[in-house]
């Protein structure tokens, strides 16, 4: 009996990192051949799509954000307010975001049937349920691999304030693993050693290359090519370390975004998008509010709302929003039932995700929950539908397949389809 | 020592007397023979062909069309560097390099191999390799990692048979102080039955049974759901238990509990017969029957709150015995193949966890021979590694003219016509960098009479860990093949520690080279190449160094020397074991 996409073979597992190596090799080759295809490169650069994910880790409450139920037994104390999108109301905890609602679409019928942090995280970042035997790439790696120009010196996937693991790229290879800006700082060792003049560095690297080339005569060179290329990539990254220079934000911007970590991280994300990085993930924590749910949301959303809204408005003002997809999500929502500690627990059954920017119909709403928010009553979707939607929003065919080990692996769950009503 | 050797001779004799003797009676003989008089062995010994000869015969028999592409035997430099890296995890020092290259004895390679196998560095490095194989760089949990590492290092140092090491690991539940360290295999995995089943299948049986958890393997006909649950059944009754009084976490066991499984496919097809169960069994072996107890009499110590239960019969105690049993050839075969891959750069069965009938070994007869002899030699790790590195197959050069012919297909690595280039492991890379730049020498000198392998490693472990964290992959998912990340290269290019290695400091390579008089640039080139790449520079390389140093004095000269060392250390010639 064949197993379509649910689990990989032994080979897909053991050859994954090998493919990582060769993928990097293949890409480096593309990098060279790309030079001769100037036109193709230009086309890529004008059409290049970018993606920003806001990850509210712990699980933000849909009832205190995108799907408020004021005046019901589950609704909590907050009101719903009108937004810049006619007819769309969101929680009063998001007054700034409400002003940007004409750029955003809401998916209110999410049912991922998963209440575990780790598994929910996996579903939302890979579009699949976790299965033994096969590891799907995370969306940062996926979009880095699909959207970043092959000869780009910039990292394709940068993660700020939310960590990330080099295994996220799985069979797509290390080039698409997240570059994690831990502590909101630039990567280590981007600068030459203090005593090293740039000219001297060029000479030693040239010498390194020469010695390597001599060795590689009459030897199998698939791996050595990757190794050599990586020194050039590192040099390119060092040359573009300006993208990591986060020292020159204006006082006005710092004021607008807020003087806390999340505000600063949003500013960093704005700069990375401006400088052409393909995928940026910005994290905000912690929404796991098993007790004091409302006080926590006042605090957390109070920090989140303004920088998030400012980010969208800045991208729009600068003409970046039309080719940048924005996704605001987390691992699951929170229970409609308010527990004895005035908290809400994990709830993957009926919750919301917000999207905006490239390929998204601003102000659109898909899906509906019942009056108390306990059930999806219209247009139920899961991680698979969302992934089809992300792909199509940036102009990619979500029904295509990966071939990690010569066998087709569907890019998005073939049992699901895109949420067409929110696609522009 | 004498007795052990003799025993092996007798075994070999028995082994080659004919196929009439199957494995089991042969092993049954062994314990008797070791105690009795050993007379017949010596005169017959000559007729016994050493394993390294068998390896070469069987590899060469399969060259066929590729025979025109067979690489020449490696030169002394190539062999020296390779065998040092493979057996001690570091490159040789400049003194060791010169001594070997100048040695005129015809059997100097064999002498060197024996020296390396007896060195304390052998125990350090091989035990580190075993550690990665067994623990996949998992983090500390419950068991002190240092005591675990020491358990492995000691085991390798005293050349404990590999099957015995494995039995000790499976027998340890963490309750006994002396064997506590070995329980890390279970406890670092939190006793998770599925994780343990998958890892045991992969590591010891060459089978990635992941898919067989939910249904018979969809692509591999040999691998059934029964195989997965046959292994799980050994462990299903065990669980992690923390003894609050003793402040100790152990892998405890209950007297009841069966694995229950049904195929998710059958459920979907509505043809399911309902959940099945199985007794503990290793693959297609015989299920291990169990003693029956009257109800209420199953325990030595009955389960109660905060009490660790002890059943009268332990299923888990059977696991190590069943896995390493001579009836289970898969174990000897998988170990032979894994060690072969470690030394030769590729498994005879490849990938290593895909040993099934649709993925036959490149050299089936050879893998059979290796397996037979592994069993006959009672899993003697040192003997096995010695035989591998003494073979011509191992000693071939990585250079091959065919790679240069643009139209020629790349030589198939599974034919072992040339030495396969192996990326240095993180540990090898760290120790090779420290040796090449002369940092090890500084520490060796400073330790003076306190110098032992352990004290030296203590000094250098910080550097080793940095390399492991950057190059080793994530806990549970060590890097298997070659990967490069931006972090690694930025570290190698710009980190202060690396720059510190190549900058002159009393006793290091840069410092030594700078002491060579300025008018002897040829000598400088020689020192540099022998220190870092363990070979003499050729004419072009010598002239390159001379040109680089021409007219440079003081700081300029010192900088140039540092930069050449850096370029050599970062070259692909250094990054790979070739």
From TrEMBL, chain A:
InterPro entries: Alkaline_phosphatase_core_sf, DUF1501, TAT_signal, TAT_signal_bac_arc. PROSITE patterns: TAT. This is DUF1501 domain-containing protein. It comes from Gimesia aquarii.
From TrEMBL, chain B:
Residues 315-547 form the DUF1553 domain. InterPro entries: DUF1549 (IPR011444), DUF1553 (IPR022655). It comes from the Bacteria. The keyword Signal applies. Keywords: Signal. Residues 55-235 form the DUF1549 domain. Residues 1-22 form the signal peptide. The keyword Signal applies. This is Cytochrome c domain-containing protein. It comes from Gimesia aquarii.
